[in-house]
Design a protein that fits this description.
Length: about 425
């Protein structure tokens, strides 16, 4: 009598892929760096939480929950990030960069095994001072770029770091929240009244960027760079008891902006990535569904709205969040606008975010979609073979993939681990403002 072995499930395959990726990252000395040049402005690319050593440390801190020996690998990566920070004359302070980013990595390492108290205290002071300086800038100059308030560089990410570190009652945090509340107020811009969350710069400087966005800026709706980030931060702060005057009203104002510019196509409701000045004034119809990702559109905005609904006790916002997820279960995968497996704008970010909607009114199709996406990621790696990895953000050799957290394999491995074993995970997605 012969027996057959059942094929591995997607979760088993996800764990196997995550293990393979971790194996390629285990030795920092064997990981080649991309060609970024040697200037001080390039050092963040190999040290930051987004693309460098600090972000890879997250993966091994999480893995140390199951294998304490992985703590040493996490420490090696964190040490490299710290050494780089000491040589930088003007580091970035944002949550996904060098100062708060290293602090976040060390905080998770301390959760996994203790230590780092003195280093964390120093980084907390630097992050708080940066938040205070940025708040003063925002209060003084009514309009500016989206980096002033976003998750990666700005006040939303810095605020989440301060909350994580138990500094929600600090003067720096109070000033930060007051500034974010004030940004819901109006400012004059090219003959129109716009919220102070208006970005005077375009979402990117690609040659194909809409000239209207280059000339007059835009309102960014996404979670990474747009108003969904401050919405999530203000709601999370409220949940933690960090509250200033007007905070609830500011949350309501940001939700109202998302309501105003939500559109509908044959699959259901969606949010465009940006709003031009003419569209802001005229609410122009016919906007196209943009990317489905953490950074833009659902499910990133959906999660911010869900957090706000939970924090403020608004069942209608929770219903709206779930309603924005339903179209994704009907949308063909080729229409997601998702061309990569990364956390930021790729499949692993969608996979992870959908995990927050597996117990709602669309639970069964959402779970099915997660399995489909996991299968797509696994099939891509099976077809292409083990990826060639490089540390950094751009300047990668042809055929190589980034090794880091936000757009690389460390983030993918974290998402795959959480998909397969959600009960055994550190809260690494705080860095994405998901909780």
């Amino acid at each position: 009598m012969t027996t057959t072995t059942a094929p591995p499930t997607y979760r088993e395959q996800a764990l196997a892929l995550a293990e393979e990726l971790a194996g390629q990252l285990r030795d920092p000395a064997s990981l080649p760096q991309a060609d970024h040049g040697t200037g001080p402005d390039e050092r963040w690319k190999v040290s930051s939480l987004a693309s460098g050593h600090a972000g890879i440390a997250l993966l091994f801190s999480e893995r140390s929950l199951r294998d304490p020996a992985e703590r040493l690998t996490a420490h090696r990566y964190a040490s490299l990030a710290a050494a780089s920070l000491e040589t930088q004359p003007a580091p970035h302070h944002g949550l996904l960069y060098e100062v708060a980013g290293l602090g976040f990595a060390l905080h998770l390492a301390s959760q996994a095994g203790g230590g780092y108290g003195r280093a964390l205290a120093a980084l907390d002071a630097r992050a708080g001072a940066a938040a205070s300086a940025l708040s003063r800038l925002v209060d003084t100059v009514p309009l500016g770029p989206m980096a002033r308030y976003d998750v990666l560089d700005g006040l939303a990410g810095l605020g989440r770091y301060l909350l994580l570190r138990g500094l929600g009652g600090s003067a720096d945090m109070e000033q930060l929240l007051t500034s974010l509340v004030g940004m819901t107020g109006p400012a004059d811009h090219h003959g129109q009244r716009v919220p102070r969350y208006w970005s005077v710069t375009p979402p990117n400087w690609h040659p194909a960027t809409d000239p209207a966005l280059v000339d007059h800026g835009h309102l960014n709706l996404g979670l990474a760079h747009g108003i969904a980030g401050p919405l999530a931060l203000l709601a999370i702060a409220h949940r933690h008891g960090a509250v200033v005057d007007g905070q609830r009203e500011a949350v309501e104002s940001l939700v109202a902006l998302l309501d105003r510019f939500q559109d509908t196509d044959e699959y259901g409701p969606f949010w465009p990535p940006t709003v031009s000045l003419s569209a802001f004034g005229n609410a122009e119809p016919g906007r196209a569904r943009g990317r489905t990702a953490w950074c833009y559109g659902a499910p990133g905005i959906s999660r911010a709205l869900q957090i706000a609904g939970q924090a403020m006790g608004r069942a209608d916002w929770l219903e709206q969040a779930h309603a924005s997820i339903a179209p994704l279960t009907r949308l063909p995968l080729e229409s997601f606008g998702t061309e990569h497996w990364s956390l930021c704008h790729g499949w692993s970010g969608v996979l992870h975010l959908l995990g927050y909607f597996t117990d709602g009114p669309h639970a069964a199709p959402v779970r099915g979609l997660r399995d489909t996406i996991a299968g797509r990621i696994i099939e891509e790696f099976e077809a292409d073979g083990p990826p060639r990895l490089q540390l950094g953000y751009d300047g990668l050799a042809g055929g190589s993939h980034p090794a880091g957290f936000l757009e690389g394999t460390a983030g993918l491995a974290l998402a795959l681990n959480h998909y397969a074993r959600p009960e055994e995970s550190l809260p690494w997605d705080i860095a994405l403002l998901l909780n």
